Amino acid sequence: MGHRKKSAPRHGSLAYLPRGRAKRTIGRIRFWPKVEEGPTMLGFMGYKAGMTHIIMIEDKPGSQNLGKEVSHPATILDVPPIIVFAIRTYIRNQNGLQTFTEAWMKHPPKDFDRALVLPEKFNIEESLKKIEDGLDKIAEVRLLVATQPRLAGVPKKKPDIMEIKVDGGSIKEQIEYSKSLLGKNVSVTDVFKEGRFVDVVAITKGKGFQGPVKRWGIKILPRKSRKTKRGVAAIGPWKPPRVLYTVPRAGQMGYHQRTEYNKRILKIGIDGKKVTPKGGFLNYGPVKGTYVIVDGSLPGPVKRLVRLRHPARPPKKVPESSPNITYISLESMQR
Length: 335
Prior knowledge:
CATH architecture of the largest domain: Beta Barrel
Radius of gyration: 24 Å
Strand content: 25-35%
Distance between the termini: 58 Å
Order of helices and strands: EEEEEHEEHEEEHEEEEE
Largest sheet: 6 strands, antiparallel
Shape: globular
Number of domains: 2
Structural class: mainly beta
Helix content: under 10%
């Protein structure tokens, strides 16, 4: 038999090319799902504190371990209340969504000038009247919200500003709901419930400029290889006379935006001491107030802002009740 040329599956996914750095540390949500109940906010955010493991009674329908105690890795999010500081309405035209008008709260908190230039004079009554008069034109209602880092364990004061869509019910109901929240604190319990699934949007841990072995997982060439060992031996044919984008090359690795679908909220609590391990979370410290335990891992390092969103494609088999957690590990993470 003649010699058969060796072949192997390609290394690394081409799904997220180009692998460039994210523009901002805050994840950008490009799609908001429709919801039946409401009106309600479709998202929330918190700071990643760290991971632990929990033991719970398995309640996934069809699971072989149904009714038994199982151990799960879990991530703790520090979720202090957010401030709704403005209502923004949109109209739809041939170019898509276009801002119609905004209504701001009267006295924004002291840290807001760290993040943006506040309007000197803002007539909230006039803006709300304009929204009421344009009800038939308005296509979407969104809330401008800000985090309160002073209430979390992150070492900063500047709030993170973002936009969250309001959905469910009619446009008039959404505007009344938004007016009731304007200038107030909103807790995660007002948006999500235990046992529900959420989508998670965050920027992954940055790893800088890396070679193709670490970045793409290609094989290290034999010791006797000429020129290079931690690289691709043949980077392509003569024609086309260029290196194809599918060839694994060195470059930026990490610090990319990623969305993970259908992460389950295992528990929401108001006393962070109940989930803070002995000595605090590594590189974070103690969780002071409201927290969320999410099943599994989340993108990004500790202290990074993580955005939660109502699921875009929720699973069909969903446990009916909130999970029964029998144990949360609080063992020290100091080695």
